Description:
Elements: E1 15-17, H1 18-23, H2 25-32, E2 37-41, E3 44-49, H3 52-83, H4 91-94, H5 97-106, H6 113-116
Parallel strand pairs: 1-2
Antiparallel strand pairs: 2-3
Amino acid sequence: MREGVKRHTFDIEQLVAASEAARNFSALRKKAKLAPRLILENNKPDSVIISIEDYQQIQEVIRMLEDEIFELKAISRIQKAETEGVKTCKFDEFATEDDRAIVKSAKDWDISDEELFE
Length: 118
């Protein structure tokens, strides 16, 4: 497990019936700042209410994992190319100033991994 990332299981005090959540939403929000609350609909997990800090931490972990997946896909493609006899070289070995400018501006492009790795 990564440093700073906590795994969470729900204890009995964190389980809340959906009807109770609807009646006491303000109190539920306050409790969720201390620990996540699992909302149950007909005794089955339905929703989770968490603090904004927990939400932001989850988003950061997702971002880091997306970055790692991207890097692993890139490494895999390079390894596949090398095993197929394709010569590889570093970007800096062939890039022109125009190429570098494009790469610098590309940080703002919104391209999914699926589009990139078609």
